[in-house]
Amino acid sequence: MDAMAGESRIVSGERTRSHAELIQRAVRAAGGLARLGVGAGDTVALLLRNDFPFLEASLAAGMLGARPVPINWHFQADEVGYVLRNCEARVLVGHGDLLAGVSEAVPADVTVLGVPTPPEHLTAYGLPEAADALPAGVQGWDAWLADHAPRAQTVPTPPGPMLYTGGTTGRPKGVRYEAPTPAQIDGMAAMRDTVFGIRPGMRTVLAAPLYHSAPFSFAAGALRAQAHIVLQPRFDATDLLALIEQHRITHLYAVPTMFVRLLRLPEAERRRHSLASLQWVMHAAAPCPPEVKQAMIDWWGPVIHEAYAATEMGWLTHCTSEEAQARPGTVGRLIPGAVARIYDEDGQVLPTGEVGEVYGKHTSMPDFTYHGLDDKRRAIERDGLVTAGDMGYFDEEGYLYLCDRRIDMIISGGVNIYPAEIEAVLITMPGVADCAVFGIPDAEFGETVAAAVQTVPGESLTAEGVQGFLRERIAHYKVPRLVAFHDALPRLDSGKLLKRRLRDPYWQGTGRTI
Question: How deeply is 378 buried, as exposed, middle or buried, from its count of CB atoms within 10 A (0-12, 13-18, 19+)?
Fold first, then answer.
């Protein structure tokens, strides 16, 4: 089939749907969810990779005034169970192979609906054909949809998703926004249009996992624009180039790790596909080394854009290729509706050129709290602005530069990883007396996870043993790539860990600190 023929479609592997068909299925799903008792203020959890039901269930929940809650499907059973309990999910929709690994952690009062893992996902993840089967007693999504009539009435202003972001307390926090007003919905759409270049007739590949806030936001904009959308089940550099050529893709959202993997392809493979259709490639979520960005601009042309945002703040800045080349390292200037200031430790606003903590917010974003953790929400606010813990400064022309992070968060391949969560598990390992987890430089992912371990006297541990212990208890991407053993960790008499003494030697000579 000619990728340009007819109306814009939503494509996954050999399967395809029109936007009208997607909405029809979402309206039918809303009817089914209402029959299950889902209503305004409730939550519907999604343990799904990039697939049609992710979009259908998200839209359906919003039609009822409920919140979709995307769950990072890399999570282990305990992590998934925590999110389900914390968000008080009424329903869980998941791919069959993912549900099979977490069934014991699903609360008894949560209704589970299963999506058979589609062929393109089985192939992408190297799963056997039998992995498409649903766990015993779980009703299939398509059969369940067929049993329910479309929802007759829907709420005019969906409340939006509740997205879980990590925290220094060791458990992720649910960012729960108030229901937006119609004006805020229009403002958020304009915000997305500015940073993503959203426009009618655009054609895109959703390559990043939709459980992250930025890809979710990008997908919402693409659906609103009735874009031609290709769902890539798993990012693969070679496959992405082929999809760009086949579908004449105009817009992409990416993270720097994707750029690194694309640049590592053999020259012959990089030149084999036509990329002339590309108009706007947005990257965010993690610092991009200037040399990587320049290499992408040299290859793809001046279509590379960057933005700075956080789930709690919304999108704040935008930077074009030309601006990035003129001011290496900047994340751009504030977009319309964005407000940001730099504060010192005493809460004083700093002048141009001085480094402090970045606080900001886009004015179209409704207010939010952390679900059940109002005190933590209050702790990140100054003068109506909030912070993600980044340190930076503005230059005289209003360009923002990020320098470091106040908190210990690691950004690896655009994914936020919180050391406290890993440390809380590692300290329970027999033979571990003390531990510290931090980020170290990585050429592909920007940062990777390292652990410093102090063993109990007389005990002997190995790096492989530590990694194996953690791999059984936390998501694999959180497991330290490097484990170093120490006689003692640097702590003050007060007990405060001087983590920078462990971290800094790895960053010496790299020319960067994040």
Answer: exposed
Per-domain boundaries in the chain: 11-164, 410-507
Domain 11-164 annotated CATH 3.40.50.10190: no
Contacts of 509 (CB under 8 A, 6+ apart): none
Kindly report the number of other CB atoms within 10 A of residue 389's CB atom. 15
CB 96 within 8 A of CB 127: no
| Structure letter (DSSP) for residue 497 | B
Q: What is the CATH number of domain 410-507?
A: 3.30.300.30
Whole-number mean pLDDT of the chain? 92
The DSSP code sequence of 186-217 is HHHHHHHHHHH---TT-EEEE-S-TTSHHHHH
Quick count: other Cβ atoms within 10 Å of Cβ 375? 9
| Sign, CA torsion 178/94/73/23 | negative
Write the pLDDT tens digit of every residue in 314-362.
Answer: 999 999 999 999 999 899 999 999 999 999 989 999 999 999 999 999 9
Task: Find out whether 277 and 250 touch, Cβ atoms under 8 Å.
Answer: yes
- Rounded CA-CA distance 58/300 in Å is 33
Query: Which of 238, 323, 252 has its CA nearest to residue 281?
Result: 252
State pLDDT tens for residues 70-92. Answer: 999 999 999 999 999 999 999 99
Q: Using CA atoms, how far apart are residues 86 and 70, in angstroms rounded to an integer?
A: 13
Q: What 3-state DSSP class applies to 501?
A: helix
What is the rounded distance in angstroms from the CA atom of residue 401 to the CA atom of residue 514?
Answer: 12
314: left (phi over 0), alpha (psi -120 to 50) or beta: left
Closest-CA residue to 278 (of 197, 193, 189): 197
